């Protein structure tokens, strides 16, 4: 069992008369985490699945009295895949308000459904946590820095989904299964995305544009649709934890890009599955820079979220093509990073940026010093 960083954080928030909501894409290990965490094994815990028809019925449009009978003898209730249950927000509100002796934990694989349906009735009644695919930091803790460093190129190709990490030699097969059978299930089931062919076109276009600014108008022309549809699909993909947006930073410099955005995948393996590219000799790949950038940015953001660091993330670019790969803003100062796969490649902070903003740290991140960035 690979220990997850947020297990102790969840434990610290038990028994405070608030629901605990655990979000994350399908197959990232939410169920496994809760079924195997030691603190739940020591409690009287009832596990329920929103995928089961009778559970859906019992927890939809229910009453506190019915819930009290259902939970009798337990002090903790876990509702897995809670987004499948109609009016789940109202049900969770009933449990937190009327059954104060019950610690409720609910998991959801589609933020746009579970989060939206629970946000209003659960104001002040919930703690939220995110679970991502396994992280570099978690794997270092599991089997040591040296071993994980040796596996770095494999991670850049196949990513960190738990099933991929634990079933070496079968990565390609399982990644295709995750991408085709699980990842878009909520999107398609809800009817928000009706054209699977368009979804695939958009994802492939985004996968090929890692590290580049994304234009919804250009994507629309490329995919044969309109920019409004592109925006809606990207919003859904973001809320399903498949991709995330990195905005451009601008404040003081006149020629800064004002509304630019880059889009990255939460997992390199999913990105490569989308374009069907599993060539595992990294040095032979033409997209090595994109893979390295996507890997580092996604891992760093996961790391900061898990450690509950309050930082804002950006890239920076001017119309004269001066650029910075990754910026962390904290207390009106900045940590600035450039990413280079070749440790001998040169990198420097643009004078335009350093003259306009307070820079606490500038660092070039290569495989030789990855521990400085991700641990």
> Which percent bin holds the helix content?
40-55%
* Rg measurement, Å: 22 Å
The mean pLDDT is 91
- What is the spatial order of strands in the main beta sheet? 2-3-4-1-5
Range of strand content:
15-25%
Q: Please tally the β strands and state the result.
A: 11
Number of domains: 2
- Globally, the shape reads globular
Question: Regions with pLDDT < 50 over 5+ consecutive residues?
Answer: none
Find the structural class using helix and strand composition: alpha/beta
Description:
There is one protein chain. Helix content is 45%, strand content 17%. The protein contains 20 helices and 11 strands. The protein has a 5-stranded parallel beta sheet, sandwiched between helices. Strands 8-9-10-11 form a 4-stranded mixed beta sheet. The protein has a two-stranded antiparallel ribbon with strand order 6-7. The protein is globular.
Chart the SSEs and their pairings.
Layout: H1 7-12, E1 19-23, H2 30-36, H3 38-41, E2 45-49, H4 53-59, H5 64-70, E3 76-80, H6 88-98, E4 103-108, H7 111-119, E5 126-130, H8 136-143, H9 145-150, H10 152-158, H11 162-166, H12 171-182, H13 185-190, H14 196-208, H15 216-223, H16 227-239, E6 243-247, E7 261-265, H17 268-275, H18 288-306, E8 312-317, E9 323-330, E10 333-339, H19 351-356, E11 359-365, H20 370-374
Parallel strand pairs: 1-4, 1-5, 2-3, 3-4, 10-11
Antiparallel strand pairs: 6-7, 8-9, 9-10
Helix pairs in contact: 6-7, 10-17, 12-17, 14-17, 15-16
């Amino acid at each position: 069992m690979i220990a997850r960083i947020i297990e102790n954080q969840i434990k610290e928030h038990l028994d405070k008369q608030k629901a605990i909501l655990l979000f994350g894409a399908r197959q990232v290990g939410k169920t496994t985490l809760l079924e195997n965490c030691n603190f739940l094994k020591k409690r009287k815990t009832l596990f329920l699945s929103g995928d089961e028809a009778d559970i859906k019925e019992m927890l939809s449009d229910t009453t506190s009295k019915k819930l009290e009978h259902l939970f009798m003898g337990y002090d903790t209730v876990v509702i897995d895949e809670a987004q499948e249950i109609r009016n789940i927000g109202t049900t969770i509100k009933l449990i937190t308000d009327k059954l104060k002796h019950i610690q409720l934990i609910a998991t959801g694989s589609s933020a746009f459904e579970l989060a939206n349906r629970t946000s209003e009735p659960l104001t002040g009644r919930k703690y939220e946590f995110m679970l991502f695919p396994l992280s570099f930091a978690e794997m270092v803790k599991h089997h040591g820095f040296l071993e994980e460093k040796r596996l770095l190129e494999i991670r850049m190709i196949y990513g960190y989904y738990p099933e991929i990490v634990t079933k070496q030699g079968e990565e390609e097969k399982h990644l295709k299964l995750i991408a085709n059978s699980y990842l878009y299930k909520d999107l398609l089931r809800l009817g928000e995305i009706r054209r699977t062919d368009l979804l695939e076109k958009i994802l492939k276009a985004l996968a090929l544009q890692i590290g580049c600014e994304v234009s919804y108008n250009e994507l629309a022309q490329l995919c044969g649709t309109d920019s409004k549809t592109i925006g809606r699909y990207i919003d859904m993909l973001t809320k399903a934890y498949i991709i995330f947006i990195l905005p451009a930073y601008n404040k003081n410099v006149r020629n800064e890009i004002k509304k630019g955005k880059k889009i990255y995948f939460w997992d390199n393996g999913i990105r490569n599955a989308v374009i069907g590219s599993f060539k595992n000799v990294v040095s032979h790949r033409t997209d090595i820079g994109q893979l390295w950038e996507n890997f580092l940015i996604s891992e760093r953001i996961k790391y900061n979220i898990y450690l509950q660091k309050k930082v804002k993330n950006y890239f920076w670019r001017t119309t004269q093509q001066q650029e910075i790969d990754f910026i962390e803003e904290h207390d009106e100062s900045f940590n600035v990073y450039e990413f280079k796969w070749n440790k001998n490649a040169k990198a420097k902070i643009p004078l335009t940026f350093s003259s306009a903003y307070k820079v606490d740290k500038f660092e070039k991140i290569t495989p030789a010093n990855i521990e400085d960035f991700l641990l």
